[in-house]
Amino acid sequence: MTTAVSEADRAGYLALVGQGAQAPAVDFALALAERGVPPRDVLLDLVAPTQAAIGDLWARNEWSVAQEHAATHVSEHVVAALAAHHRPGAAERGILVVACVDGEWHALPARLFAEVVRWDGWDVRFLGASVPGPHLISYLHRHGPDVVAVSCSVPTRLAAAHRVIEAAQSTATPVLAGGRGFGPAARWGRTLGADRVAGDAREALGVLRSWPGLSLAESEPRRESFVSDDEHVLIAKRGPQLVASGMEALAERFPVVGRYTPAQREATEFDLGQIVEFLCAGLLVDDPELFGTFLDWLCVVLGTRRVPLPTVDLVLDVYQQQLYDFPRARAHLAAGHRRLAG
To answer: What's the domain count of the chain?
Structure first.
């Protein structure tokens, strides 16, 4: 009896979700569990890596946004079906709240984690996508959970995550931070003051099992006060001005930009705005690697769409000139230039 997810299983499942075949995909996942694969592994070794593969397919321009959304919808039904068919035992470990930070709409990773820890004996309260900070705090005050797991999938939501971490801790609720938005091994969650961090769901399970008492007093030492200057705030306010300057420079250097359709112009402005947002996120946690990793991804996306990569260098030049009075931002942009050159 097979008790592990194979590469053939992942390929078959990807084909089903790519077709939007909801019922066959659900049957496929349930059949894996019936043949001996633990439901937890179906989620973590089948659904989760498939979602990562879907993101790569979109980045390489092999899948459209519509196909990616349809596939994600199918996986949401698969998670629900597994949760319904495999009920957890008694919740003996305590109450765990799982929430995505305000503005974070990628809820599926958090939902996967919620079901996995539910099967591990937790009474889980999954609050879903984009939970406003004040509403989360009100919920924590009312229900008094043992721990809150904060999910962040995109680094541009780190400022919101920081506010949630501080607010949750003000209610004496320990915080576990996880999700790709917190960076490799969730290191930016630690920077922002979370009591514990986890790079993936399996690591989070281990963290929760070994956390003594789940109390703030017994947490690992964290930064007593997260200190950041206001460069990221001021630059975010300049975002529209920076994007306009970037568009003007692109039109001067590449005349075709002046003939863009409204849709093309909107897409380009979005990309330029993303550069500003990721720059601000890198400044918040004071880590040039955040911005550099984003540039790596952006170049893949633009390259598959046949956008000349020197356009990125040009925009970074413009932003450096505009931000002459922001030394850390200029340093992050210079590091980005070196990354592109390499």
So the answer is: 3
Last residue of a domain, one of 175, 199, 227: 227
Prediction pTM value: 0.89
Residue 161 and residue 107 in one domain: yes
Q: What does each C-alpha distance from 173 to 49, 196, 239 come to in angstroms?
A: 31, 12, 35
CA dist., res. 75 & res. 106, Å (int): 13
CATH number at residue 59: 1.10.1240
How confident is the prediction along the chain (342 residues), in pLDDT tens digits per residue? 568 999 999 999 999 999 999 999 999 999 999 999 999 999 999 999 999 999 999 988 899 999 999 999 999 999 999 999 998 877 788 999 999 999 989 899 999 999 999 999 999 999 999 999 889 999 999 999 999 999 999 999 999 999 999 989 888 899 999 999 999 999 999 999 999 999 999 999 999 998 866 554 444 444 444 556 789 999 999 999 999 999 999 999 999 998 999 999 999 999 999 999 999 999 999 999 999 999 999 999 988 888 888 899 999 999 999 999 999 999 999 999 999 987
* 3-state SS class at 334: helix
